[in-house]
Write a structure and sequence with these properties.
single chain; mainly alpha; 2 domains; 3 helices; 2 strands
C-alpha cells in the first residue's frame, strides 16, 4: 500500500505531459495488481496450501495458473484450486495419473 501511496503522491507533486501521465498510471496499476495478488495469496491460497483439503477446490477462473515439473507441487496447487500444468515427458507419466488434456 505504501508503494501505491508513493506513486499517487508523486503524481500529485509533479505536473506531467500526457505520455508521462500514462506511464505513471500504468505503474500505479501494476503496483495495485501486485498488492491484489499478494492479498489473494495470503487470504485464499496460503491456508489451502498449509492445510490441504481432502478433495480439490474448484479452480479460480481469475488466476493465470502455473507450469511445474514437480508432481508434489502440481498436486498441492491442484487441490488448492490453482490452474496448474504438469510438464513431463510422456514416458515419465504414471498410468494412474488423471490427464485431462495432454499437449
Amino acid at each position: 500500500m505504501r508503494s501505491a501511496e508513493h506513486e499517487v503522491a508523486r503524481l500529485c507533486r509533479h505536473p506531467l505531459v500526457f505520455r508521462d501521465l500514462v506511464a505513471f498510471i500504468a505503474q500505479l496499476q501494476c503496483t495495485l495488481l501486485d498488492i491484489h495478488a499478494l492479498l489473494d495469496y495470503h487470504e485464499i491460497l496460503k491456508p489451502l496450501l498449509v492445510t490441504p483439503p481432502f478433495k480439490p477446490v474448484a479452480a479460480n477462473p481469475t488466476w493465470v495458473g502455473c507450469f511445474t515439473k514437480d508432481t508434489q507441487v502440481c498436486e498441492a496447487l491442484f487441490f488448492a484450486g490453482v490452474p496448474v500444468w504438469l510438464v513431463r515427458s510422456e514416458v515419465l507419466i504414471p498410468p494412474t495419473m488423471n490427464i485431462i488434456h495432454p499437449v
